[in-house]
Write a structure and sequence with these properties.
heterodimer, A: mainly alpha, B: about 110 residues, alpha/beta, Immunoglobulin-like, four-stranded mixed beta sheet, 1 helix, 8 strands
């Protein structure tokens, strides 16, 4: 299964400057995208725990839940400290809508077919989100503490990308 | 505090694993520090003696563990800022990893 979100993110980052451009999002909109992106991966992980019977998939899924919840908690704490609220935006909405389609497709699969699809989706998703965070968000974030949080997040998500790559090979 | 209670429980468990440890005459138990930072254990190679203590401190936002590959010891999950003090026993295996992020590996060289 290709990652539809990966395709959506590639398309979004290729938009011209006057259209919906991820590079033009404010810090609080970027924070919202991160929160939505974390929650999407948490949802995928819960689906994997419900459907897969493979221990390695379960361990990976639990790590996704643990780590993405930690990032969300830190993001909410930072926004609270700054007296700001995350702002909904076009990219958050697109990610959420596309993830519904992926959840619909994944939830119809079972056994090895599910494991392969989940692992491939995780790899594609993390690759796409990491690309967005590293090359579009971090260079455009204004507040230093928000930037620092995203840099910490990117470190985590790059580890996830590597782990997903191992998992894809393991479930072939 | 959960962190303090966890630390006490771990030290208690470690002490229970070492009922009658006799250190060589003149040997002193040392406290070694291993920092978990940037998805790495630092130092990733450390020489320790049976009876020494090793303090694993997680500085990362992501929760980590330090878990012996052979299952002989385990810090459990450490949140950011938490640490675990474990006492080295002669039952310890030297190779370890993070159970949540298995690409993170390191080794203790355990001397008697």
């Amino acid at each position: 299964m290709k990652s539809f979100i990966a395709a959506a993110l590639v398309a979004a980052t290729a938009m011209p400057a006057f259209a919906n451009d991820p590079a033009q999002l404010s810090d609080t909109e970027i924070a919202h995208v991160a929160y939505v992106a974390d929650n999407i991966d948490i949802r995928y992980a819960h689906l994997a725990l419900a459907i897969s019977t493979t221990p390695e998939i379960h361990e990976f899924a639990r790590t996704m839940i643990r780590d993405h919840e930690a990032v969300n908690e830190a993001a909410l704490a930072l926004l609270d400290k700054l007296g700001a609220e995350a702002q909904d935006n076009f990219l958050s909405q697109k990610l959420a809508a596309d993830s519904e389609e992926i959840i619909n497709r994944l939830s119809q699969l079972r056994g090895a077919e599910f494991d392969r699809a989940y692992a491939e989706n995780e790899l594609g998703y993390h690759q796409a989100v990491n690309n967005l965070v590293e090359h579009t968000f971090i260079p455009n974030i204004d507040h230093p503490e928000v930037k620092a949080l995203f840099e910490q997040g990117l470190e985590i998500f790059k580890a996830h990308e590597g782990h997903a790559e191992m998992m894809v090979k393991a479930v072939q | 505090m959960i962190a303090n209670r966890r630390r006490v429980l771990r030290l208690g468990a470690a002490a229970a694993m070492v009922p009658a440890l006799a250190l060589p005459a003149g040997a002193q138990s040392r406290l070694h520090q291993i920092a978990i930072h940037g998805f790495l254990f630092g130092p990733d190679r450390l020489m320790v003696r049976v009876g020494d203590k090793v303090r694993f401190t997680n500085h990362d936002l992501a929760p980590h563990t330090a878990t012996a590959t052979d299952g002989s010891w385990d810090t459990g999950t450490l949140e950011q800022g938490q640490h675990a003090d474990l006492m080295v026993t002669d039952a310890w295996g030297g190779d370890y990893f993070c159970a949540h992020h298995p690409a993170m590996t390191a080794r203790l060289e355990i001397m008697a």
